[in-house]
Amino acid sequence: MSFSLILINADNNVYRRKRARQRSKARPRRQRQEKLIAYMSDYPTCNVCNTEDGSSETLIENFPRGTVEVQQGLFSSDIWIRLNMRGLPSKCKKEKNDYVKNGCGIHIHEGMTCSSPNLVKGHYWNKDSFGDGDENDPWIRYIGENSDSNGPAIQYDSSLRGDAIDQWIYLRGGNGFTAEENLQRAIVIHDENGVRKACGVLNWVF
To answer: pTM of the full predicted structure?
Structure first.
C-alpha cells in the first residue's frame, strides 16, 4: 500500500507529490569524508519573506543557535547531516507533522549568502540528474507506507527543551552534488510549520 501527499499551495491548487526519506542514526561509513560546517544564525530579518514556490512565510522571533555539519564521501554524493543546536522547536520530535511542506526540515539552498531572504533562494539539487519540480526534489520526496522510513526526506528531531537530538541524518544519493559543489551554499532550518527559522553558509572543516 502506498500514499500520495496532498498539499494546497498559495493559489489553493491541490497537487500531489511523492517523497522519499532515508534516515540513519549511525555515523557515516569509515571512508574518507569531506566535511562542511555552517554556523547558524537568525534567518534574514523581514516581516514576510517570499519562498521558492512563490508563497509567503511569516517569520517568527525566536531563533536557534549552533552548528550544522555536513559530510559526504570522497567518491559519493550521499549526504550525512548532524545538528548541534539549541533553541529548536520542541514539536520537531513526536508531534511533528510529516504532511507540512518543509516541516522540521533542513536543506541546502541555491543561495550563497544569508544576508537577504531573496538571496537564499530555493532547494539546491542537481536537476540534470534528478529532474526539475517538487516531485523530483530529493530534499522533500516521500516513499510509501511499506517502507520503514515514511515522511520527508530530511527532518531533524528535537527534545522537549528544543535541543537537537544527537543523530546523523542520511540522504541516499544526496542532492546530486559533491561536497565541493555544496561548498558556500546556504543551509536552512525550518520549524514544524515549514517556516524558515535559521540560516548558515557551508564552509570546509579544517
So the answer is: 0.76
